[in-house]
C-alpha cells in the first residue's frame, strides 16, 4: 500500500519516468507554521549530485505545495506536494532490457503486476522517497515546535568500515564468557547524546567521526573505481520523545518503527537499542535499572532498551540502526539470465550511486518523524479522553499513575 | 492497535490475570477444513512447562472455538477462539509492587494508560501471544493446503552460542578486504533448504543442530542457576511462497514481516537475507544472478536477498532472523528505584523462563503465516482483477509479462 | 469486514448456531468505571422474549467480560466479551433447506462464500448485533460521564402508522408551492429535545407517544395474525455532542453515522435532519440562521441540518431516521424457487419477530455511540496537538478561532 | 479522513483557493488501458458553466496525469492526477467574512480546526469532488471492460417536482390498508432497466423524462430569480454487478454505498431499493421471490431489495436514491449572527448554483464505481483463495454452493 499511518497519514506516488513524484499528507495538525523551505532543506539533503560520491545527475527537486496551507499556516486539511521529474521520457528500448537486473526489482515488479514501468523497478526507484522526505519534514517541524523532539541520523558504517564503538565487540572468542560484554560503549553513548545535523553534514559521507568518514570515503571511491557498489548502516537517535508512545500489541513503537525503516529501498535489517548484540548479554547486565532524574521523573541508568520497553517509549533516547545492502545496479558485467532464461552478460549503463547511505540519512529521519507523529496523535487521543473521566478511587494505589516525586 | 492485517485480520485480546485470552480471525477463506487439533498442536509448542528449561507452570492452554466453523469447515465468517486463564485472580499486593521491574513494561504501561493491570505489564505478557499462535495455525493450514507453503523456525543462538555458519564470519580483521566474504555458508544453505519441524522439536531447545543444542541448554541452565536470564535469536525459513507478494511502497514484504516480528514480546532486532552482514559485501558479490530453473521459471543462483527483491517475493526461499533480548524478570536482586524514585533493591518472586527463544519458535512461525496469508489475499485480488482485462497490445514487449521459457 | 472504527475499534463475531457471540473493543479509554450491569441493561432491551410482540424465545443473553477490566475499571487494553448461544446445535436438515428464503441472506451468503452456515443467513442473524450493543454500552458510559452526551432512539413508525409530525407533510398537492413547508414541526422539536429512555420504554413498542404506540401494536398484531411481517422506522436524537466531530471528506459525521446505521440488519434507508423532505424546501427556509446562545456560544435558530454542517457537528442536537424493512421470514407460504431453480412453495417454520423495530432501538443507540466515540477520539487528537503549537499570528483574524462572546 | 477504500484506495486533496485539487488512486489493477479522455469526459459533466442553470464560472478543469500510467496503460502503481485551480488567490477580506454563512461549513470548520481557509468552507467546497470524479472514472473504465458493469445516475426530483413513479404513492390515506401498495411502479422499473447516460444528458437538468425535466428547469429558474436555492434527489442504477459483493457485518454493500454517498457535499439522505416507502409494506408483498432466469441462474421476480440482500449483492440491478439539500449560499439577505454573536444581515456575494443535482450526477456515479471496485477486489481475493482449496466433502449438500441449474 502507498499509505502509512493511522491519524497522520502519508500517501506517496510516482516512479522515476512519470511527470512528478509527491505525496498527500492527511491529518497534519492545523495552525502549524510551514514554509516550503522547511521541506526543501531535507529534500536538498536527499537529492543526487551533492558530491562526487553520489550519482552526478543534478536534479533540483524543488517542492511545489498544492493545498492545505494558507498564509504559511497549515489548515488541518490534506497537504499535497509534488516535485517534478525533470526527465520524464519513457526509457528507450535497449538490449539490456532483455535482462532483469540481478537483485533489482525488475523481475519482481513484472511478476507482481504482469507489467512494469519502462524504467524497470517502478516504485522501487529512489525517487519515490521524495514524498516521504517531504512528509517527514512537515512532521519534524511539528515535533520540534510542540515537543522539542530532535531526530538525528548518521552513517555508522560503509562496508566493513564502522564507526568506532557503535556496538561493542565481545571481549573474547570464548562464547561462554560474557562477563565483559558491553552492548553500547561510553563513547557511543556520548555521541548519541550530543550529535547534531551540523556535525553529520560537516562531511559529505554524513558520518560524524571525521577520521572514519575519510576511510568510508575511500571505501566508496574504491567501489566506484571497481565499477562496483557497497552497503552500509545508518544509526538514528531521537531525543525528547515523551513516555507512552506505541500501540500494543501489534503497533508497538519498535514494530511500527521497524516497518517504516524496512520500507525504505535497499534496507535489509533493523535493530533497536542493543539489538542483536544485546541478545548475548544476560538479563542482569542488560536490564536498565531505574533512577530518579534531576527533574524528578523516573529515568533509567543504562539504556540498552533504546528508549522502548514493552513496545512503549519510556522517555529515554531512542536509538536504532538500519542495514542498507550494496546497490544492485553496478557497471561491471554480471553473468545472469534474460527474462526468457537465456544466459548472458549484463552491464548496467548510466551512472549510479556506488553507496546509498549518505543520501539515505534524511529518509531515515523522515520515516522516524512520521512514525512518532502518528503515535503521538493516537496517544494524545487516549490521554485527553482519559483526563475527562472522574478519578478512579477503587483501585490499589500501585495500579494508578501517581506523582512519582516527593 | 490489537488488529493486524488488511484482508486476513487478526485481533487479539487478553492479559495474564483476566478470564481468558484469545483472538478473532476475520477474513479467513471459506471452505477450509479446520479442526481444533490444527490449532492445538502449535499452542502446545508454545505453552509453558514443556521442559525444565521453561517456567514450571503447567497450563493446558486448550483452545475453544467459538464461531466461524461448522462441521469442521470454515464459513468465511469471523473465527473466534479463546484459551482460559487457569489462574485469573488479580495479583495480590506486595512490597515489590512499589517497584517497576527494570526493562519490563510496568513503568511504560503505567505512563501510557495512567493505570496498569495488577500483573504489571498488561498486554506485554507472554500469554498475549496465544491468540497469535492460534491465528497463525489457521493461516498455516490454508497456506499448506493451497500452496504447499512450509514455515520452519528454529533457535539459531542462545547468548553467544550460535548455530555454526548461520552467518559467515568476515575472513579477516582487515576491514578493507572483503574478497573472501560469504554472507551465507553452504552448510547453512543446506539447513535452510531441508530443516523440518520434527528436526527442530527433536531437542527441547528447538535448535536443529544437536551439538549446539546441547551447548545452548548448558548456557540456559547456567543462567537459571545464576538466577539470571539470557537472550537469543530465532531464524525462520519459508519455502514455496509464490513470487509477487508484498505491497510497495510502505507494505513491502520485509517491512510487513519485520513489523510482525518486532511486535512479538522481547524482540529487538530483525534482518532478512544476508541482513547486517550483507551490508559489508560489495554488490558484485551480493547480487543474486538469475538462472533458468528446471521447471522453466527464472530463479536466482545465490539468495542473499532472502527471497525478497524490491519489497516483493521472488519465489526463492525467504529467510530471516529475529533477536530476542534476555528476559527482564530475574530472581537475583537488582538495585533500582521505586515508582516514587526511592532507591532500593528488587528481587522478582515466582518462576520465570530464563530464556524465551525455545517457546518463541511457534510464535515466529505464526506471525510469518499471518503476514503471508494477508499479502497473498491482496495479491490474488490484483491478479484476478488484471486477468479479466483485455490483453494489452500497445506496450513494448519488455514491459509485459511473457512466458519466460521456450 | 467485522471491525468498525479507527481509534475506538469494535470487532464482532458469531452467528446464531455457534458457541457464542461477542466482540473485542479495542481503544477504550483507560480509567472508565465499567460494570457488567452497564452492558447488561442494553442487552436486556435487545433480547428476544420481552413481550408477546417479539419472538417468544426467552434467551438470557448474559454478558461475560473476558479482559481489559480489573476492579471494575478499564485498563485501556482490549475489552473482550461474549454471550453464549444457549442452543448451538447445527440446524437439522429439512425440506425447506432446499429453498433460499426470499429476501433473506441464504442465497447471497451462499454466493459470496460458496458455503453457508446451517442456519442459512450466517452473520445476517440478529444475534450478531449482541456484540454491537455491548460495545455501544461501553461507549455510552464514557460519553455520558465525560461529556454528558445523551442518546435516545425510539420507534417513529410501524407500517403506515407514523408518530405525528415526525416530518411535516407538504401543505398542498401543488408541487410549485412550498410556502407552507415545514420540515420539522414544533411538536416534534419538543419531542427531540425532551424524550427519555424511560418514556420510550414505558410501552413495549418503544414509541414515546402512547396513542400511536397502541396503534402500532395493533398493526404488528395484525401482521402476526396474518402470518406476515411489517417494517418501520426508528428516529434517534443525540444531545450534547460538542462541535467539531466528523472527518472530511470521506468520514464526514453523517457519512460515518449512515454507514453504521445501514450496517444494521434489515435497514434500507437513512436520513439526517430534514432528510428527503428537506430537499423540497428552498434554501431561504431551510438554512439555519445563527444566534447567540445564553451560554455565549453560537447556536442555530432552527436545526434542519440535524446538528451537522459540512460533515462536522455544530453543537446542536443530532437527529436522524432509519428505515427497517419488513422481516423476510414469514410463516405464510411463498411461491418461490429452490436453489436449483425448481419452482415451489416455502413456508418458514419456527417463530419470528413480526416487526424488528422495537428490539432494534438499542442497536441504533449502540451504533450511534460507537460512531461518536471514535470521532471524538480523532478530534481530540487533533485539538490536543494543535493546542501545543505556538499561536498563529500571521493570519487574517477571520481565519482564526476567536472567543465568540464579548 | 481523506482516503476511501481498502484495496482500491482513493485519497483526495484540495480546497477552492489552493494551487490544484486532485487525488492519488492506489490499488488500480495493472494492464488497464487508460487515456486522459476517459477521465475528462466525467470531469466535463461535473464542471461549472455547462448551462445557465449552473454557476456561470467557466473553468476548464483539465486533468493532468502524474504517475502510474505509461503508454496509456496502468502499471498497478499509484495513479496521481490533478486539476489546477485557475483562480487560487486567497479570498479578499470583506465585511461578510464576519459572518459564518448559515448552514454552510464556515462555522464548523472553524470549530473543528481552530482555523479556516480564507474561502470559508475549506474542503466542503464542490471543487473537492474533482478528485472523486476522476477516480471514479478510472474505476468505471475497469468495471465496464472487465464485467460490463453500467452505472447511470439521473435527477429524480427538484424541489417538489418528482419524476413520475420513482416511488409509488400509498393507495389511500387509510393507514391500515396497504393492499394496493407498490413500492416501485412498472414504469419506474422500465426506466431503471433501460436508462442510458445519453438519455440523461439529453437535457441539461439530467432528468431522463423530458416533460419533468422542463418543469424542473422552471423550478430552478424560479429559485434563481428569487435569489434563492432548491434541493433535489438523484437516483442511480447499477447493472451487471455480480452476486457476492459486500463485506458483512460492518461493510455491507449498502452500508459502504451509503457511506460513500453521504460523504458527497450537501447530501442528507440515502435509501436503497424500496427504501423508506418499503418499510410500510408487509413482508408477504415486499419479499422478492426467486425464479429461474433464462441463463439458468437464480434471479428474483421483483426487486424491492434493490439488488442487495443481507448486505450482499444478489446479481439484480442495484438502485438507490440520494437527497441533496438546497444550497446554503443564497444571494438574498439572511438574518443571522456574526462569529461573535452580534446579530446582523448577510447577503452572499458572487454567483452560485441555485441547485446542485444536475452537476452532482457524475459525482454519484463516481462514488458508486469506487465502492464497487473496492468490494469486487476484496471478494475476488476471497473467491480466488477458496478456489485453491480441496473440495469440501463433509458438509450437508444444502450448505455448499452447487450448480443451480440442471
UniProtKB/TrEMBL annotation, chains A, B, C, D:
Swiss-Prot/TrEMBL GO biological process terms: amino acid biosynthetic process; aromatic amino acid family biosynthetic process; chorismate biosynthetic process
Keywords: Amino-acid biosynthesis, Aromatic amino acid biosynthesis, Lyase
Catalyzed reactions per annotation: 5-O-(1-carboxyvinyl)-3-phosphoshikimate = chorismate + phosphate
Primary enzyme class: lyase
Listed cofactors: FMNH2
Cofactor note: Reduced FMN (FMNH(2)).
Record carries keyword Nucleotidyltransferase: no
UniProt keyword Ribonucleoprotein present: no
Cleaved signal peptide residues: none
Top-rank lineage group of the source organism: Eukaryota
GO cellular component: cytosol
EC number annotated for this UniProt entry: 4.2.3.5
Pfam families the UniProt entry points to: Chorismate_synt (PF01264)
Record-level Gene Ontology MF annotations: chorismate synthase activity; FMN binding
InterPro entries: Chorismate_synth, Chorismate_synth_AroC_sf, Chorismate_synthase_CS
Pathway: Metabolic intermediate biosynthesis; chorismate biosynthesis; chorismate from D-erythrose 4-phosphate and phosphoenolpyruvate: step 7/7
Subunit structure: Homotetramer.
Family: Belongs to the chorismate synthase family.
NCBIfam families according to UniProt: aroC, PRK05382.1
HAMAP family: Chorismate_synth
Protein name: Chorismate synthase
UniProt organism field: Guyanagaster necrorhizus
Biological classification of the source: Eukaryota, Fungi, Dikarya, Basidiomycota, Agaricomycotina
Amino acid at each position: 500500500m502507498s499509505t502509512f499511518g493511522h491519524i497522520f497519514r502519508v500517501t506517496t506516488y510516482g516512479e522515476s519516468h512519470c511527470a512528478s513524484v509527491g505525496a498527500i499528507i492527511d491529518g497534519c495538525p492545523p495552525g502549524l507554521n510551514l514554509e516550503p523551505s522547511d521541506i526543501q532543506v531535507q529534500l536538498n539533503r536527499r537529492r543526487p549530485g551533492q558530491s562526487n560520491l553520489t550519482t552526478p545527475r543534478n536534479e533540483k527537486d524543488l517542492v511545489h505545495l498544492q493545498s492545505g496551507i494558507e498564509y504559511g499556516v497549515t489548515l488541518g486539511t490534506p497537504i499535497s506536494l509534488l516535485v517534478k521529474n525533470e526527465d520524464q521520457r519513457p526509457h528507450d528500448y535497449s538490449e539490456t532490457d532483455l535482462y532483469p537486473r540481478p537483485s533489482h526489482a525488475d523481475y519482481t515488479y513484472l511478476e507482481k503486476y504482469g507489467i512494469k514501468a519502462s524504467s524497470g523497478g517502478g516504485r522501487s526507484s529512489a525517487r519515490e522517497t521524495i514524498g516521504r522526505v517531504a512528509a517527514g519534514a512537515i512532521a519534524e517541524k511539528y515535533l520540534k515546535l510542540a515537543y522539542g523532539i530532535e531526530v538525528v541520523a548518521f552513517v555508522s558504517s560503509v562496508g566493513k568500515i564502522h564507526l568506532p564503538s557503535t556496538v561493542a565487540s565481545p571481549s573474547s572468542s570464548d562464547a561462554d564468557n560474557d562477563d565483559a560484554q558491553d552492548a553500547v560503549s561510553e563513547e557511543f553513548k556520548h555521541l548519541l547524546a550530543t550529535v547534531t545535523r551540523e556535525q553529520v553534514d560537516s562531511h559529505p559521507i554524513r558520518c560524524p567521526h571525521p577520521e572514519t568518514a575519510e576511510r568510508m570515503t575511500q571505501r566508496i571511491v574504491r567501489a566506484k573505481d571497481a565499477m562496483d557498489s557497497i552497503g552500509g548502516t545508518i544509526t538514528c537517535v531521537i531525543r525528547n520523545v515523551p513516555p507512552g508512545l506505541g500501540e500494543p500489541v501489534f503497533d508497538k513503537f519498535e514494530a511500527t518503527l521497524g516497518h517504516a525503516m524496512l520500507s525504505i529501498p535497499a534496507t535489509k535489517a533493523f535493530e533497536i537499542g542493543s539489538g542483536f548484540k544485546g541478545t548475548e548479554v544476560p538479563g542482569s547486565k542488560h536490564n536498565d535499572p531505574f533512577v530518579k532524574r534531576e527533574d524528578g521523573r523516573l529515568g533509567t541508568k543504562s539504556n540498552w532498551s533504546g528508549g522502548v520497553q514493552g513496545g512503549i517509549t519510556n522517555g529515554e533516547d531512542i536509538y536504532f540502526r538500519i542495514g542498507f545492502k550494496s546497490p544492485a545496479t553496478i557497471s561491471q558485467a554480471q553473468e545472469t539470465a534474460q527474462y526468457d532464461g537465456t544466459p548472458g552478460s549484463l552491464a548496467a549503463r548510466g551512472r549510479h550511486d556506488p553507496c546509498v547511505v549518505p543520501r539515505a540519512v534524511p529518509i531515515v529521519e523522515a520515516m522516524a518523524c512520521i512514525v512518532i507523529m502518528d503515535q503521538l496523535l493516537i496517544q494524545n487521543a487516549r490521554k485527553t479522553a482519559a483526563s475527562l473521566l472522574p478519578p478512579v478511587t477503587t483501585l490499589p494505589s500501585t495500579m494508578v499513575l501517581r506523582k512519582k516525586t516527593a
